[in-house]
Specification:
Layout: H1 2-35, H2 38-41, H3 47-56, H4 58-83, H5 86-92, H6 97-136, H7 142-145, E1 151-152, E2 158-165, E3 171-178, E4 185-199, E5 202-223, E6 226-247, H8 266-270, H9 288-293, H10 297-308, H11 314-321, H12 334-358, H13 363-389
Antiparallel strand pairs: 1-2, 2-3, 3-4, 4-5, 5-6
Helix pairs in contact: 1-4, 3-6, 4-6, 4-11, 4-12, 6-10, 6-11, 10-12, 11-12, 11-13
């Protein structure tokens, strides 16, 4: 009988939890996906890149929404059972309330483990894959971003100005500034006409009847067998041309392609911490980009706390929600008690979100962040045992 009640309660909660989690995550994802449209409208990425990048950001949203979805689901489940008098049936059949508390606490542990796996493994992998897509993506929509009588700087180190552009893509009176050269020289091109063509899935800017102005900033000179660098000022070379081609695939978008902290594996972040280097799990970092991240250790600690510490606030929310089991419908403060309990759990979630941002600032903040939840879990569990163990079920 008790096993059937437990399975029934678990089934109802999981159904509501999945429904709420999916609903909230989809809403947040849609809103966030609208912001990602800048990748297309401003950075020139294709819609395939935009859609794939948006999908891979979904695990991060789901991971962030789990505590809030758990809070809403638990309140809805308990309220539903209470409204249908199913809880009263449980009590009158001899089921002690502390058994429901244990069941709810067990469910919270399972959800905590789920969020831990999602936040520490799958989410960073998905975010890193999304960043890799941006890094490897070309500027396929660059031609459509060129506007008349406007300086277009969609890609790095390239500025293009066109006076007129017809419906066939033919451009007139073109000014182009190219600072992408690795030889410390800048290039200015002025052309009467130009057009963008696609060859072998690569965009080329073909210019006609113009002049190329190259400004040399530094040059290497051999003196007595040694290579010396001389920097000359006001040295400008001119070259007239009838036709020239510029491979636009050699330019990169201004979109940030450097992986952020939240996109790094947990072991890579842990390897930046001194105490972790003494453990057998320590891995030597080989990427220079990761080593550069180790300079911001407070941010690394905060990111790790978000992944590891935040899930442990879920059992605390579950135990506080269990106080709803002690409420009585005939009490005039019944609804007020529900609002107070819900507000209290919501405040705890806000506190956890704020505290995690400052948890890497000092050891005191770190201790407060990690001991706050276990201490309250222990206190509330003992208090629930005290309330329900000797409760007169017939009252």
């Amino acid at each position: 009988m008790r096993n059937k009640i437990g399975k029934y309660f678990f089934k109802e909660f999981i159904y509501i939890f999945i429904l709420i989690l999916v609903s909230i995550s989809v809403i947040v994802w849609v809103v966030q996906a609208v912001n990602y449209l800048d990748f297309v409208t401003e950075d020139g990425h294709t819609f395939y890149t935009y859609f794939y990048y948006s999908i891979l950001n979904l695990p991060k949203i789901v991971s962030r929404m789990i505590p809030f979805a758990f809070l809403i689901s638990m309140f809805i489940t308990i309220s539903k059972f209470d409204k249908n008098n199913e809880l009263l049936i449980f009590w009158t059949s001899g089921l002690n309330k502390i058994r429901i508390v244990n069941l709810i606490f067990l469910i919270s542990i399972l959800i905590t483990l789920f969020q831990l796996i999602l936040a520490t493994s799958f989410t960073p992998f998905a975010l890193n894959s999304a960043r890799s897509i941006l890094k490897s993506s070309d500027i396929g929509l660059f031609p459509s971003l060129l506007k008349e009588k406007k300086f277009n700087d969609t890609v790095s180190d390239l500025t293009v100005f066109i006076e007129k552009k017809d419906k066939n893509g033919l451009m007139q009176n073109i000014f182009l500034r190219d600072d992408s050269s690795k030889l410390n020289e800048s290039k200015t091109i002025i052309a009467e006409k130009g057009i963008i063509t696609n060859q072998n899935n690569k965009n080329y800017l073909i210019l006609f009847d113009g002049i190329i102005q190259t400004e040399d900033k530094c040059s290497s000179v051999e003196v007595d067998g040694d290579i010396k660098t001389e920097c000359l000022k006001n040295r400008i070379n001119f070259l007239n041309f009838k036709k020239t081609e510029i491979n636009l695939s050699s330019f990169v978008t201004k979109t940030t392609t450097f992986p952020k902290l939240q996109e790094r594996p947990a072991l890579s972040l842990l390897s930046c911490l001194d105490w972790f280097k003494k453990t057998f799990l320590y891995i030597e970092l080989s990427e220079r980009s990761i080593k550069d991240l180790c300079s911001s250790k407070s941010e690394i600690v905060s990111e790790l706390n978000r992944r590891i510490g935040m899930p442990f606030y879920i059992p605390l929310i579950a135990l506080i929600a269990c106080y709803l089991l002690s409420s009585r419908k005939e009490s005039k403060y019944f609804h007020l008690q529900k609002y107070i309990i819900f507000a209290l759990t919501f405040v705890i979630l806000i506190f956890a979100e704020i505290a995690v941002r400052y948890s890497g600032k000092s050891y005191i903040n770190l201790l407060i962040y990690y001991f706050f939840s276990p201490a309250l879990i222990f206190f509330n569990y003992l208090n629930l045992i005290r309330i329900f163990k000797y409760e007169n079920l017939a009252r």
